[in-house]
From TrEMBL:
This is Palmitoyl-protein hydrolase. Keywords: Hydrolase, Signal. Belongs to the palmitoyl-protein thioesterase family. InterPro entries: AB_hydrolase_fold. Residues 1-15 form the signal peptide. GO terms for cellular component: lysosome. One of its GO terms (molecular function) is thiolester hydrolase activity. It comes from Rotaria sordida. Gene3D superfamilies: alpha/beta hydrolase (3.40.50.1820).
Length: 289
């Protein structure tokens, strides 16, 4: 009997201090292994924490061949089928992974506590540097025909190609980003509610990023219409109309931004370790109740 009580006591103590699991999503032309270094830092810092780096399909090719709508669907299925994640988790998306995880939160109402995006692409990308991560034959398809249906259905990067000279076409014909950014018609209130209920939304960008253009997309800022000037955040439609709840999160003190100083390809690796340990690790220091 005493033994049983003891076991119960111990399991209560242990279960009451279980760190929230962490789910990681990698970027384009990469695989789940690309996030393992970061996973290791988290595991060493929070003993017993469950960290999983998600792979969609075969990883590298599917990351650029599968439309993001499909990638989000598969991401949600993987998360739903993992019993460790039932009670909630923190989530990290790097680069293309930033909009996969945000899309998954908005569309699948995942039980996410803190959403962290590292050098994300929240206002899309436009320009050649990012496309250099793709096989050459894809570049011209995107630069010339991004908003044509067959390209939208065939290359993930077309789903967040935001051409400041064709913003109308972007909004009407780009399959993914304008939808999860609530830029089309009446804003989807479920998307918005799912963002507002986060405990924290953390965004980073690197001031020397040469892959994501504009690099400020990491902080949810994009090009102004018909221009290569960056829109200020509080002048953007996203902020003014609070389309997905960013302004609300800001007003509630739940929006955090950080500037790193690292090459895009090093964001989840050793050259960025100090930045991550100092600024990002605290957002994993929370437990399931
Ligand atoms: C987590 O938070 C606790 C309490 O504030 C603190 O003592 C501990 O050092 C933190 N752990 C890490 C790895 O930051
Ligand atoms: C808008 O943002 C800019 C730059 O961050 C800042 O200087 C300005 O004061 C802000 N304006 C308002 C009305 O908050």
């Amino acid at each position: 009997m005493i033994c049983l009580i003891f076991v119960l006591l111990i399991s209560t103590v242990v279960s009451s201090s279980i760190y929230r699991p962490v789910v990681l999503m990698h970027g384009i032309s990469s695989t789940a292994a690309g996030m393992e270094e970061l996973a290791g830092w988290i595991r060493t810092s929070f003993l017993g924490i469950y960290v999983i780096s998600v792979e969609i399909g075969n990883g590298k090719e599917d990351s650029f061949l599968l439309p993001i709508d499909k990638q989000v669907e598969q991401f949600c299925e993987i998360v739903y089928s993992d019993e460790h994640l039932r009670q909630g988790f923190n989530i990290v998306g790097y680069s293309q992974g930033s909009i996969i995880v945000r899309g998954a939160i908005e569309r699948c109402s995942l039980p996410v506590y803190n959403l962290i995006t590292l050098s994300g692409i929240h206002q899309g990308i436009f320009g050649i540097p990012y496309l250099l991560q793709l096989p050459e034959e894809f570049r011209e398809l995107i630069t010339k025909y991004a908003y044509e249906n067959p390209v939208q259905n065939a290359i993930s990067a077309a789903n967040y190609w935001r051409d400041p000279n064709q913003l109308n076409r972007y909004i009407s014909d780009c399959h993914f980003l304008p939808d999860i950014n609530n830029e089309r018609g009446i804003p989807n209130q479920i998307y918005r509610q799912n963002m507002i209920k986060l405990n924290a939304f953390v965004m980073t960008y690197s001031d020397i990023d040469q892959v994501v253009t504009p690099k400020e997309s990491g902080l949810f800022m994009g090009y102004q219409p018909n221009s290569f000037n960056i829109e200020t955040w509080n002048n953007s439609r996203q902020f003014k109309e609070d389309l997905i709840g960013l302004r609300t999160l800001w007003e509630q003190g739940k929006l955090f931004t950080f500037t790193s100083h690292v090459r895009h390809q090093d964001v989840t690796h050793a050259p960025n370790k100090d930045f991550i340990m100092k600024n990002i690790l605290p957002f994993f220091n929370n437990t399931l109740s």
